[in-house]
Design a protein that fits this description.
Shape of chain B: globular
Number of helices of chain B: 0
Strand content of chain A: over 45%
Order of helices and strands of chain A: EEEEEEEEEE
Structural class of chain B: mainly beta
Shape of chain A: globular
Helix content of chain B: under 10%
Largest interface: A-B, 26 and 29 residues
Strand order of the largest sheet of chain A: 2-10-9-4-5-6
Distance between the termini of chain B: 36 Å
Distance between the termini of chain A: 36 Å
Strand content of chain B: over 45%
Largest sheet of chain A: 6 strands, mixed
Number of strands of chain A: 10
Order of helices and strands of chain B: EEEEEEEEEEE
Number of strands of chain B: 11
Structural class of chain A: mainly beta
Largest sheet of chain B: 6 strands, mixed
Oligomer: heterodimer
Chain lengths: 117, 117
């Protein structure tokens, strides 16, 4: 069984460009979570989505960041007008059940490492 | 006060010794606790889950939970150089999301462990 798949593995963008990060959940999972890890720090929750709905975006920066999980296709984390401070590893996880009834751990994809030059 | 606190380290132990990693958390009603291991440049991988007070053993790893003290620890017996990594404590904690209160996996900043041959 394939786990969570993320691409690209590495992404380099110049300041001001847009970054699009993709996450394909485990087959049959309809709940997706995005986390960001800055250098030398732990993972910080960003957003939790169910297909076609944002459930919890309490960790998302207010500007330039958006996320979607369409009915078909992968979840997308979009960062507009990137700045150097956006350089980080972005990890995605998925679950078969809603987070408030799912106490099991999350298993993460390999991540996308974004570098802003 | 951070929601999940860990000593950042670095923690160095000789090969064969016991490594002790500690974590405290702020949310009294948290019920699910996890330890992840992260090698440099890699994604976090789950090594232990614990849900009840007391000890849980899995091979060389023992997780200990004390909900009254809001404390969770990880012991690694017979430490090996291959155990050298950053260990992340994660707790299922309440957040205030778009639709009200939700619970998300919240991480500490990690403890860097080095096992010396």
């Amino acid at each position: 069984n394939a786990g969570v798949m993320q691409n690209p593995r590495h992404l380099v963008r110049r300041r001001g460009q847009e970054a699009r990060l993709r996450c394909s959940p485990v087959k049959g999972h309809s709940h997706v979570y995005w986390y960001r890890q800055l250098p030398e720090e732990g993972l910080k929750f960003m957003v939790y989505l169910q297909k076609e709905n944002i459930i919890d975006e309490s960790g998302m920066p207010k500007e330039r960041f958006s996320a979607e999980f369409p009915k078909e296709g992968p979840s997308i984390l979009r960062i507009q007008q990137v700045v150097r401070g956006d350089s980080a590893a972005y990890f995605c996880a998925s679950s078969p059940l809603p987070r408030d009834t799912y106490n099991s751990p999350l298993h993460f994809g390999n991540g996308t490492r974004l570098t802003v030059t | 006060q951070k929601e999940v606190e860990q000593n950042s380290g670095p923690l160095s132990v000789p090969e064969g010794a016991i490594a002790s990693l500690n974590c405290t958390y702020s949310d009294r009603v948290s019920q699910s606790f996890f330890w992840y291991r992260q090698y440099s440049g890699k994604s976090p991988e789950l090594i232990m889950s614990i849900y009840s007070n007391g000890d849980k053993e899995d091979g060389r790893f023992t997780a200990q939970l004390n909900k009254a003290s809001q404390y969770v620890s990880l012991l690694i017996r017979d430490s090996q150089p291959s155990d050298s990594a950053t260990y992340l404590c994660a707790v299922n904690m309440a957040t205030v999301g778009a639709s009200g209160s939700a619970r998300q996996l919240t991480f500490g900043s990690g403890t860097q462990l080095t096992v010396l041959p």
